[in-house]
Amino acid sequence: MPASLTPPSDIALNLALSLISASVAPVLLLDGDLSIVAASQSFLDAFNVSPGDIPGARLADLGDGEWHVPQLWSSLVAATSGGASNRSYEMDLNARHGVRRLILDVQRLDHGNADGIRLLLSIQDVTDVRAKERQNGELIREKAMLVQEVQHRTANSLQIIASVLMQGMRTVGSDDSCAHLRSCAHLRDAHQRVLSVAAVQHQLARSELGDVELRGYITDLCRSIGDSMIRDHNQITLGVTVDDSVASSGQSVSIGLIVTELVINALKHAFPGDREGRIDVEYGARGQGWVLKVRDDGVGMPTDPTTARPGLGTGIVQALARQLGAVLTCTDAAPGACISIVCAAPSSHGAQ
């Protein structure tokens, strides 16, 4: 038959056979009965199939029958009936030399009649890729467990140090000399600061790596501080209001340290002489940024210049606020005081 009179279906078939022959990927051409019309050399090499086994064979008859997989056959049958023109999925092939993970892509080549139906089945072996992914996932999980174990041990170590400092305060507390009183005050500050860091580490050790949900984190942190520092919860109450915000683990550490410093500072100075009162911690998103407030209804901001000088805790909070790209402000709440940490937008140089 002259080339100009070659039926279009034969031209399409010859083109498909040429493409399959030149393919560097495992490819099969199937007819409407799911018999193999042609196979690429890469398919023969990859799955140990002899070229003599291909002509007229059904895919299910290849090898030891490992290709007779219900998932594969339901996809092929659906493609021949016009149910789907393109079906791509992963499956396990229980081959002679072990299980192989394959990505199969089924393309229907329809020439308008049953005899013209052809299915192009391309195969990608991703066994090694999936094994590497599983290995990486296991390494990540192991690393996460190690980090959490380190955080847990760090928190425990800090609590031990705090106990030692408390014993030191009790030892020097019986001496009323100025030097011993100053030593006791320094030990008390060190004790509270160690407790501050220990509380943050304890809460982080209980959380997953990555983003930290701040409502539970700050709530548990304040509960821990209250349990260790408030003797009578009917006299002083500590409230927490936090929205659904999340933060990176680095940011949550800084936020937790700020909250701890401000709450401890309020407990130390806002309610002298067994004064009753309340401390409220609030955190919420504001536009692209966020606002953290610690408010009390105690004696308010000091007016005496000698007592109004910022201490170590204030310096720590200011440094942490700058690290987060936030601004610290102190205002008179009438009664009490309000400390606000405002971050207008996510900081490019904040804690990560």
TrEMBL record:
Keywords: ATP-binding, Kinase, Nucleotide-binding, Phosphoprotein, Transferase. It comes from the Bacteria. It catalyses: ATP + protein L-histidine = ADP + protein N-phospho-L-histidine. Pfam families: HATPase_c, HisKA_2. Its EC number is 2.7.13.3. GO terms for molecular function: ATP binding; protein histidine kinase activity. It is an enzyme of class 2 (transferase). Residues 250-347 form the Histidine kinase/HSP90-like ATPase domain. This is histidine kinase.
